[in-house]
Amino acid sequence: MNEECSLLSLQVMKKILVIEDDELVRDSVSLSLESAGYDVMEAVTCEEGLQNNKHVGVAAIISDVVSLENEGGELLRRFCLQSPDIPLITLMGTLSYAGKTSATSQAAMPMSPHILHKPFTLDELLATVQGALAR
Questions:
Q1: Residue 56 has pLDDT above 60, yes or no
Q2: Which CATH number is associated with domain 14-134?
Q3: What global pTM score does this model have?
């Protein structure tokens, strides 16, 4: 029985939820994480991701900042406040913001100390995920 619990715990530790509205970015992040041994669950919106997470627990959430700025972002913020042990990694598009961030993006930053600026490398993605899971 202990062995089964350990295996289940190990599987949950490696499950990552990727919330990204851009299909190319979502697929790229998912494939990169899967090639590194993570089990990835994808969602286009925060609402979809959190609905799926009710059925399968995740070890970390990677969300595009645009998703955080839409209606579902409030749901994700509440989820992170209720589950502070699940780290949130925020993906930010540097070109679309040209050095500026909206009020919603700034509000998300203290909640998400793990930020990846697009474009990012595979090494940066994996290091950020590993750092978030290690805390």
A1: yes
A2: 3.40.50.2300
A3: 0.77
